[in-house]
Amino acid sequence: xxxxxxxxxxxxxxxxxxxxxxxxxxxxxxxxxxxxxxxxxxxxxxxxxxxxxxxxxxxxxxxxxxxxxxxxxxxxxxxxxxxxxxxxxxxxxxxxxxxxxxxxxxxxxxxxxxxxxxxxxxxxxxxxxxxxxxxxxxxxxxxxxxxxxxxxxxxxxxxxxxxxxxxxxxxxxxxxxxxxxxxxxxxxxxxxxxxxxxxxxxxxxxxxxxxxxxxxxxxxxxxxxxxxxxxxxxxxxxxxxxxxxxxxxxxxxxxxxxxxxxxxxxxxxxxxxxxxxxxxxxxxxxxxxxxxxxxxxxxxxxxxxxxxxxxxxxxxxxxxxxxxxxxxxxxxxxxxxxxxxxxxxxxxxxxxxxxxxxxxxxxxxxxxxxxxxxxxxxxxxxxxxxxxxxxxxxxxxxxxxxxxxxxxxxxxxxxxxxxxxxxxxxxxxxxxxxxxxxxxxxxxxxxxxxxxxxxxxxxxxxxxxxxxxxxxxxxxxxxxxxxxxxxxxxxxxxxxxxxxxxxxxxxxxxxxxxxxx
Length: 517
Ligand SMILES: [Zn+2]
What we know:
Strand content: 15-25%
Distance between the termini: 41 Å
Bound molecules: zinc ion
Strand order of the largest sheet: 2-1-6-9-5-3-4
Number of strands: 22
Helix content: 10-25%
Number of helices: 8
Structural class: alpha+beta
Largest sheet: 7 strands, mixed
Radius of gyration: 23 Å
């Protein structure tokens, strides 16, 4: 939150200070809390160096998008007045162990990122400690602003320098480390001061690499994973705090410490963890087949044609199970993004906002719906029976930020179940049953036909790191690709493969296809 930077919103600052401090974990740049990393301090990741060549980058991600195994360094520090409450081995389990469930945690930090990334990000922490700090914890906590954190950080880096090769944590070898974590004994005390958990920045340099980004997390003695995964979100990917957003992403609110909510599907698609399915106004006017999606399987995107690189509406099927168990409803969750807006610091124009299904006619949500109150509600989701469609007529105030109408129309949104169906435009026909044709034999690691319903669908498996999916929304522009790549329609039904010259199968009807390399 831009308490310091965005001083044109002084009332927001007052409001933040009045709220419970446990909600906040911050980005701190040069001693100041910021809503989003400034341009010069934004995390980057160079995927061109072959860490995971198999994953095709279909488009450049807006945020840093590391893939594959990423080594992260965790340094432990305790104090004379707050001694280490757990062992190094216990910390290693908390961060890395599959199925970690101490104190009710839903897996380790590594499990969390493996899940939300569909197995594409394996964040592995190497742990050193405990270092006994020079001063008692109370000394650092009592210093102005974040100067206690800075002081402790320098001490910790100095102490571990002889044991640690910091360059190991520059995973992409671009000269800066991706993930350095300082975990200190005891609880965070005062928001915005001392050792309050945050993601920070430094100009430290060791072993030939710059230690620009780090994060600091408390270890009160019981385990929870929210703070660590949230701060990693700032530090590794550069995601901002999603104020005014609600519980629908772990970069938004903090509804559960033990089973933190997933990363929202828009950020997941930006990372390449799930495919974007691009919908155009032509699709809205011509689409004829009901779309079918499993929870978190696709992120549908409708770009503002006037600013296609900046603004758009996105939606996906979100179900309140698993990582999203804490949410109060299920259905299509729609979001409005605008990358030209830095951070989520005002209630009227946000970099990323939820389009609440229950908010017809309002350009911005009424006060009780604003952060951090929105939490989540069942009526935020579009679904059959309550809010089964979206259009400019039904939502006259949901406009592009320029004020012009969106042109998007979604109808016939179904009942949330194993899948959710909806129609782009209107008058869609039911999906055709695939029972008449024998599905192609498919590798279980990439695509599996769904057997429990009349249609088959692509299954995004949890071990998909060695396959790449490309979503083709315009068959005429599909161009050349890898010979032999398998092509599926949006229902997951195989429709052919690229020929020896890499051309698409001929005579495919207009529609959305997924290519598996
Ligand atoms: Zn934060």
